[in-house]
Amino acid sequence: MYELFIAPLTETYFQKALIGGAIVAIVAGVVGCLVVLKRMAFLGDALSHAMIAGVAGGYLVMKLLFGAEAHAPGMLLGSLIAAIATVALISFVSRISRVKEDTAIGIMYTGIFALGVVVVSIFRHYIHIDLMHFIMGDVLGVADSDLWVSAFVAAIVLSILIIFFRHFQLATFDPVMAASIGLPVLLIDYVLTTCVSLVVVSAVSMVGVILVVGLLITPAATAYLLSDRLDRMMWLAALFGVTSVVGGLYLCVWLDSAGGGAIMLFCTLQFLVVLAVAPKYGLFARWMRLRNLVPQQVIEDILTTILRYKKTTPLEIVQQYVHSGKEITRALQRMTQDGLITGSDKGYTLTENGEKEANKVLRAHRLWEAYLEKIGTPEEQLHPTAHKLEHISDEKTVDYLDEKLGTRGRDPHGQTIP
Amino acid sequence: MTTERRIVIDVKHLTVSYQAKPALLDVSVQIESDQLVGVIGPNGAGKSTFIKAVLGFVKPDLGTVQINGKSAQKAKGEVAYVPQRGAVDWDFPITVKEVALMGRYQQIPWYTTPGSNDYDAAFSALEMVRMQDFAERQIGELSGGQQQRVFLARALAQGSDILLLDEPFAGVDAATERAILDVLERAKQNGKTLVVVHHDLSTAAEYFDKLILIKQRMYAFGIPQMVLNEELLSNVYEGRLRIFSDIIKKGDT
C-alpha cells in the first residue's frame, strides 16, 4: 500500500506534476464547460496546434533581437498571439466567404501549424524546440516556471469566469436576449476565446498539444452528463479534471508510462463510466426507462379487448388477445394508475375515460378496415392490417378517413363504427 | 383602458437593406399600448428584420424606430424578447427558475449576485404563467407549451411593457396553442403590449387585436377584418386564392 500510494508522493517530480496538473485541469474543466455548451470543441484543437507557430516565432524574435535562448515568456506571448490570430482568421474567413466555420477552422489551424513546422525546420540551427515534446508534453518534467505561469493563468481566468458568470451564462444560452438587454455579446465571445487560448497555452508544456484538448473537453462533458445547472457542471468538471490528473499520474507511475497519455486515458475511462451509470443521462438509466415504457400499442390492445368482451374481463382473456407477453402486467398497472381501467379479483373493467379511449381506437380500427376494403385489400388481410393501423388514431387521420368513406355507419364485417 | 392609448413602438419610414436588397422598405407603424399585435407575411418577408430593428440590432438605412419615445438602440431591455423554440438549446444545463431569473440580469450590477428580490420577481413571473411547480426542472423536460411559458415568464420578470414573441405557436398542438394564447391575453390585461410574429393566417383574425402585413414594404396595418382582405393577401402571397377565401370568411365573423 505504502509503496503504491504514498511513495510517489514523496518524490518532488510527482508533487510538481500533481500540483501543476491539478491547476491546469481545474481551469480547463471550468472553461471547458462553456466550450462544450457553445459547441466549440474543435476550436481547442485548432488553438493548441496553431500555437507551435507562435512558439517558434517567439523563440526566433527573442533570440535574434535579444540573444536570449529559449526565452519562456517570449514563447508564451508568441503562442498566445498565434492562438488569437488563428481565431481572428477563422471568424474572418467564415464571415466573409461561403466557407462555413468548421471548414474555416480546419483550414486555418492546419495552415498555421504547418507554418510553425516549416519555420522550426528551416531555422533548426537556431531553434532548439523538440517537436515531440510539444506534441506529447512532459507532465513529469514540470519546471517551476511552468507552475507559476499556469497558476497565474488559472487565477486570472477563474476570476473572470466567476465574476462574469451570469454574462457568460446568458451569452451562451441566449445571445439574442443577451444583446437585447445590452450585453456586449461579441466582446464576451472574444474574452472567452482569449481565456481558452490562455488555458491551452499554459497547459501545452505539461500535457502536450493533443491532450490539452481532452483536458478541456472531457471533464466538462463528463460533468454535463451529471448536472442540470451550469454552476454545478463547472464544479464537477473541475473535480473530474483533478481526479483525472491524480488517477492518471498514479497510473503513469505504476505502469511506467507516458504521463500525459495516462492522464487522458484515465479521464476518458472516467467519462465512459459516467456515461454508463449517470442517473439521468446515462446509458443504463436510458435502458431502464425504455424497458419500463409501456408501448401505447399494448395499452390500446388491452382497451379494445376489454371493450369487445363487454363485461369484467379476466386476466386470461386479456393475455389471450393481447400478444405481448411480459408487458401486459406492467401495462395493466399503468392503466389502473392512469384511471383507464379498474381491477378486481374477477378481472378488469373500463372506467368511463377508458371506454372513451377504447371507442376511439375501435372507431379507428373499423374505419381503417372500411378504408382498406375500399382500396381493394384482400379480405383475409383486412383485420390484421387494420389492427396495425388502428394505432394511427389521431383525430385528423380518423376524420379524414371518415370523410373519404362518406361517413358510413358500418365496417366491412357489418359492425357499427362508433 | 379604451381612453388614451400611448404609442409604445413608433416605426417611421424604416428601410433596412442587405447588400443593396431591401429587407424592409418604408415601413411605418405605430403600435399602441395594451394590445396584442400579430406580424404576418410570407417567408423572407422581412419579419425577422423587423424584430431585429425593434430590438435595436440593425442600423436602419433610413427611418427611425422609437421605443417609449427613445431610439431603439438606446432602449435596451425595454423590449423583452421571447425566442423561437427552435432557437433554444433545450439540453442546456439550466433550470426553469434560472431562466426566469435571467429576466432580472439587466437590473443586477455585475459585482453582486442575484438578491432575494430578484428571486421573488422570477418566482412571481413563474406563478403568472402557472409554472411555479416546475421551478427546479431542467428546461428540456417540459412540454412544448410549458417551455414557451417559461420564456414568457422570463420576459415578464424583465418588467418590460413590450414583449416581442417570435412564432410562439410554431410546433405546438392545438390545446397548447390555446394555453399560450390565454397567457398572452392575461399579460395584455396586465398592461403589456405584445408583438407576435405569426405564421398561421387562419387563426390570425381570432388571436390578435391588430395585424401588420409585411413583405418588404408594409401592406397593411390595422384590425384583422381590414388586413385580411382577399386582394391584399393575394397580392402579398401571390395567388393561392382558394386558401384565403376561407380565412377571409373567418375574419368577417
Description:
The complex is a heterodimer of chains A (418) and B (253). Chain A is mainly alpha-helical and 418 residues long. Chain A is built from 19 helices and 2 strands. In chain A, strands 1-2 form a two-stranded antiparallel sheet. The longest helix of chain A has 40 residues. In chain B, strand 4 and strand 5 form a beta hairpin. The two termini of chain B are 24 Å apart. Chain B is built from 9 helices and 10 strands. The model of chain B has no long low-confidence stretch (mean pLDDT 86). With 253 residues, chain B is an alpha/beta fold. In chain B, the strands form 2 sheets. In chain B, strands 6-7-8-3-9-10 form a 6-stranded mixed sheet, sandwiched between helices. In chain B, strands 2-1-4-5 form a 4-stranded antiparallel sheet, covered by helices on one side. Chain B has 2 domains: 148 residues, P-loop containing nucleotide triphosphate hydrolases (Rossmann fold, 3-Layer(aba) Sandwich); 81 residues, no CATH class. The chains are: A mainly alpha (418), B alpha/beta (253). Chains A and B meet through helix 8, helix 9 and helix 11 of A and strand 6 of B.
How would you briefly describe this protein structure?
The complex is a heterodimer of chains A (418) and B (253). Chain A contains 19 helices and two strands.
Please specify the SSE layout and strand pairing:
The complex is a heterodimer of chains A (418) and B (253).
Chain A: H1 2-9, H2 12-37, H3 41-66, H4 72-96, H5 101-122, H6 131-136, H7 144-163, H8 165-173, H9 175-180, H10 185-224, H11 230-255, H12 259-277, H13 283-292, H14 296-309, H15 315-321, H16 327-337, E1 341-343, E2 348-350, H17 352-374, H18 379-389, H19 395-404
Antiparallel strand pairs in A: 1-2
Helix pairs in contact in A: 2-7, 2-10, 2-11, 3-4, 3-5, 3-10, 4-5, 4-10, 7-10, 10-11, 10-12, 11-12, 14-17, 17-18, 17-19
Chain B: E1 7-18, E2 21-32, E3 36-40, H1 47-55, E4 62-67, E5 70-71, E6 79-82, H2 96-102, H3 116-128, H4 144-157, E7 162-166, H5 174-189, E8 193-197, H6 201-207, E9 210-215, E10 217-222, H7 224-227, H8 230-237, H9 241-252
Parallel strand pairs in B: 3-8, 3-9, 6-7, 7-8
Antiparallel strand pairs in B: 1-2, 1-4, 4-5, 9-10
